[in-house]
Design brief:
Elements (H helix, E strand, L loop, with lengths): L6 H22 L5 E2 L3 E3 L11 E3 L21 E4 L11 E12 L10 E2 L3 H12 L17 E7 L5 E10 L2 E9 L4 H15 L4 E6 L1 H9 L3 E11 L2
Parallel strand pairs: 3-4, 9-10
Antiparallel strand pairs: 1-2, 2-3, 4-11, 5-10, 5-11, 6-7, 7-8, 8-9
Length: about 240
């Protein structure tokens, strides 16, 4: 087990992990991105909610991004993983600010969330995640990727009440898309972290959140690991 004590290294690890998840989702949609030394970029517009570029080091520049992503279609976005870029001259505006978060490896626990294993379960997971507003964003091909796992918590009737995506990279598990149907994110974090401890013992946990979701993650035992910023192209 590796323990990261430097917040900048925690942010780097979280950024690499998040880029790996973005790349996997794009591959499932037939889009192949490029992982360079300073940024991950997609030459084609990415699916809804997902960035067209993720910076991997604080030293990334606009030149590492512009020219490597599609700015002809509306809505291109860049995840500035260290809030270090100024992309206004390239036609971008700030969409939102957030924080990378880090949790030490959770202690031994008996989390009872389960893996999503078939397309019907994945469709139910997505409906619960989006409150019925999304279908097909998460293709079944993702279920065959060993580094990315959809986790679900069900009630006694089998209905989905919470879920998340877990991505393994390096020595960490990245949690994204965490949701709670009954709007109790702290309970969702507790169940998710306990399940991470059961499935991948000894791994630190990373992710990013903002606003009330960030406050809930901090109450669940996470610590801030550095700012990030998402830019959206004005086209």
């Amino acid at each position: 087990m590796i323990i990261h004590t430097d917040a900048t290294e925690q942010a780097r690890e979280a950024a690499r992990n998040n880029a790996a998840w973005c790349a996997a989702l794009c591959r499932a949609h037939g889009i192949t991105g490029l992982a360079g030394p300073r940024a991950w970029t997609s030459p084609r517009r990415t699916p809804l909610y997902y960035p067209d570029a993720v910076t991997l080091t604080p030293g990334a520049s606009p030149q590492d991004i512009v020219g490597h992503i599609d700015l002809t279609a509306p809505g291109a976005s860049v995840k500035d993983s260290f809030a270090a870029l100024d992309l206004t001259a390239q036609g971008f505006d700030v969409l939102f600010d957030a924080q990378w978060i880090h949790h030490p490896a959770p202690g031994a626990a008996d989390g009872n969330w389960q893996r999503v294993v078939d397309p019907d379960e994945l469709a139910a997971w997505e409906r619960a995640w989006s409150d019925g507003g999304s279908a097909g964003l998460f293709p079944p091909a993702l279920l065959a990727d060993p580094d990315h796992t959809f986790l679900v918590d069900r009630d006694e009737r089998g209905a989905v009440r919470a879920g998340a995506v877990a991505t393994r990279s390096g020595e960490v598990v990245g949690i994204s898309n965490l949701y709670a149907v009954e709007k109790d994110p702290e309970a969702a974090w507790a169940g998710c972290l306990a399940t991470v401890a059961r499935l991948w013992p000894g791994r630190e946990v990373v992710g990013y959140e903002s606003g009330e979701d960030l406050a809930a993650a901090l109450r669940a035992g996470f610590a801030p690991a550095g700012p990030l910023r998402v830019w959206r192209h004005r086209s």
